[in-house]
Amino acid sequence: MPVICIYLFISAPVLRYPAPKNSIYIVTIQRTCYTIPVLIFFLGLMPAGCERYGNCMKRFFTSYKKDCIYLSSLTLIFAVLAFFRLGNTYAPETFYTAVPENRDIVLDFGDYLDVSSVSVFLGHLNTRHFSLSAFNEVTGAWEIINGDAIAESVFAWNQIDINYKLRYLGIVATDDECILNEMVFKAPDGSLLLPVNAGEYPTLFDEQDTFPSVKTYMTGTMFDEVYHGRTAYEFLHGLTTYETTHPHLGKELISLGILLFGMTPFGWRFMTVVFGILLIPLMYLFARKLFGEPFLAAATAALLTFDCMHYNLSRIATIDIFAAFFILLMYYFLYRYFVEDSAYRALACCGGADGQGKQGKFPPKNVWLPLALSGISMALGVATKWTGVYAGLGLGILFIWYTITHFPKGQVLRLFGFCCVFFIAIPLIVYTLCFLPVVGYTPYKGLIDKAIQGTKYMFDYHSKLVAEHYYSSPFYEWPVIWMPLLDANDTVSGNVVSSISCMGNPAIWWVGIFCQLYVFFLWIFKKDKKAGFLCISYLAQYVPWMSISRITFIYHYFPAILFVMLMMGYTMAHIKEHFPWGKKAVLAYLAAAVFCFLLFFPVISGLPVDKEYGLSLRWLKEWILVL
Description:
The strands form two sheets. Strands 1, 2, 3, 4, 5, 6 and 7 form a seven-stranded antiparallel sheet that branches. The chain has helices at about 1-15, 25-45, 55-65, 65-85, 225-235, 250-260, 265-290, 295-305, 310-315, 320-350, 365-380, 385-405, 410-435, 445-465, 505-525, 530-540, 560-580, 580-605, 610-615, and strands spanning about 95-100, 105-120, 130-135, 140-150, 155-175, 180-185, 190-195, 485-495, 495-500, 610. The protein is elongated and about 105 Å long. Helix 1 packs antiparallel against helix 2 (about 25-45), helix 6 packs across helix 7 (about 265-290) and helix 17 (about 560-580) runs antiparallel to helix 18 (about 580-605). By secondary structure, it is of the alpha+beta class.
């Protein structure tokens, strides 16, 4: 607690600073300052078995000094990088609803002017159609300029070319309903034009200052944000749910950021950043428990900190980062259960633990609590994305393997009942509850019926989906990063572009292949149980995709790569143990991984960069990192 108080005292001037509306950098710093105390609090809870928070903090900072330094440094570095240019904290939010009764918008520019284009910021309904006409005062008739103008993307600026000299412009929304948050007209020289009768349509022209000079990911939605970000907004406003192909917990989490910061790029991406940041301490804790050494835990967490895909998925309002977090969390708690239970039974065999390790009473709280938390984490993962089910199958294999080899027969029945509660009942309850905010096109008979019908629809959708996408890639291409996914690409000026590619860090992913082979060797030929745990965990995230017939993308590999990083940590542990120069080699490799991350940073972050630079990073022929 004193650490948080000191931090807040130091950062108070930053938090109180009245940031200008367009100052994204100041706002980014402020949001980072808001987040750090939460992370400090999270770190303070790490040591298990502390009865009071004050004792927990004292024990942590005295007994885990190196852990504190390593973990706080990595977490802070990633937090700063993740919040850097995350997205504008402003966007048009008031809206005009065009329905058949008032779908005609007639604008008067006061005189005959050359109108180059109109940029429309759509609300939550996508692909809206318009008919644009100019009034001819000589003939007294409306002349159609464009009878089927289209604005595609929700919560983004959509430009429609006009290129016509006119005074009166008629815009007819030809869909049954159209939500327009803002309209901005431009002259050929780029100056903005405001109709003299803008007051007749106040919500269409009241946020002109939010119009960007350049349209990029900073100003609107990108890639699947048009589904998940939109649905999060619909949850908050009780609107008909658009994205129903995945369970809904992830979108509900996204809605929390919108609730805090509004329907803005920063708002709908905020929660993904938070969970991306929390993955760092989780990976550190997992590696610390596996390898027992702060340096190796820091080295493993550093791989995640400087992985390009982790960075990408932490900065886009999709559900994949949430699913990955809960998957890693469920395996972390399962491994903790294995460790605690083994220690408890070893103590019992030596006459400790009141002799209850083999027969008699159920294991104590420090043993069963991690197992319960593993089940709860699985529940949250399944309620986020069905990949949590794949992960749950891996948990089952590991758990059965451990139970057969370690658990006394006299306690199996109690254990079975315990698992039925935490790995079946609670996941079913959480999964059902995630359907609460869903509004269907037709009424449901109740929450359970809503969950059943929604699940059937998801299964039918994914099993029957026939689609093509240029950036799709089959499972066998993922480990080598054969086909990155281009999330966004916009021209800033001349030859300068803003591009965001979803890809792995080549220095991590490619080296990880050899580490996988080594750890599989340890499992198969050396009967290494720790290696077996990592291999089964990895296969549970990867093998199910081999039977999937629907279109897939490289980001589907992200949960699996988390366990590859743990395999890399285990490989580094062996190198450090068996070679006197091992630690220096690990540090040199980590430096190379950081350098590779920085090399690709402009094309994974959206930082404006010369197009030629992006083209120079095309290491494989299929890589299209800029357009």
